[in-house]
Amino acid sequence: SLTVLQALEDGLRRADADPSVKAVMICGENGKFSAGADIRGFSSLKRCGIALGPIISLIERSEKPVVAAIEGIALGGGLEVALGCHYRIAHVKAWMGFPEVTIGLLPGAEGTQRLPRLIGVPAALDVITTGRHIPATEALKLGLVDEVVEENTVEAAICLANKV
């Protein structure tokens, strides 16, 4: 939504400008990282001039480490946000993927470029073209996430942020 995108952008800009902030952690609410965009909101985002791609690039360019704490699901644009982060920690029960391909859409915020760089072209093509949901344990084997935890994902991400 417009509100989430604006909050992400504002939060990242504030964190980058604040010398007391040493790292950033991005998480979702209610046990879900992000289910991605609601297709009905695409036209309103264009009218407002906000797009997910530039916000993910802002995450990626941050000089401070940015850690994604993935709980529940990271699908579509949500996975693209996680791919822009420098580190990704997932709960053992989390799932990731690009389901938008099942309705004829490709990931539109550079996920088609970031995922192959991270896990290699053959594995990325499978994830991008099938729309299947990848469990956290497989994501770890593929190199999509850096760590899988059974405990509190947010606390684990904060711990990793403190280490790096």
TrEMBL record:
<comment type="similarity">
    <text>Belongs to the enoyl-CoA hydratase/isomerase family.</text>
</comment>
<dbReference type="GO" id="GO:0004165">
    <property type="term" value="F:delta(3)-delta(2)-enoyl-CoA isomerase activity"/>
</dbReference>
<dbReference type="GO" id="GO:0006635">
    <property type="term" value="P:fatty acid beta-oxidation"/>
</dbReference>
<dbReference type="InterPro" id="IPR029045">
    <property type="entry name" value="ClpP/crotonase-like_dom_sf"/>
</dbReference>
<keyword id="KW-0511">Multifunctional enzyme</keyword>
<dbReference type="GO" id="GO:0005777">
    <property type="term" value="C:peroxisome"/>
</dbReference>
<comment type="similarity">
    <text>In the C-terminal section; belongs to the 3-hydroxyacyl-CoA dehydrogenase family.</text>
</comment>
<dbReference type="InterPro" id="IPR018376">
    <property type="entry name" value="Enoyl-CoA_hyd/isom_CS"/>
</dbReference>
<keyword id="KW-0413">Isomerase</keyword>
<keyword id="KW-0456">Lyase</keyword>
<dbReference type="GO" id="GO:0004300">
    <property type="term" value="F:enoyl-CoA hydratase activity"/>
</dbReference>
<dbReference type="Pfam" id="PF00378">
    <property type="entry name" value="ECH_1"/>
</dbReference>
<protein>
    <recommendedName>
        <fullName>Peroxisomal bifunctional enzyme</fullName>
    </recommendedName>
</protein>
<dbReference type="InterPro" id="IPR001753">
    <property type="entry name" value="Enoyl-CoA_hydra/iso"/>
</dbReference>
<dbReference type="GO" id="GO:0003857">
    <property type="term" value="F:(3S)-3-hydroxyacyl-CoA dehydrogenase (NAD+) activity"/>
</dbReference>
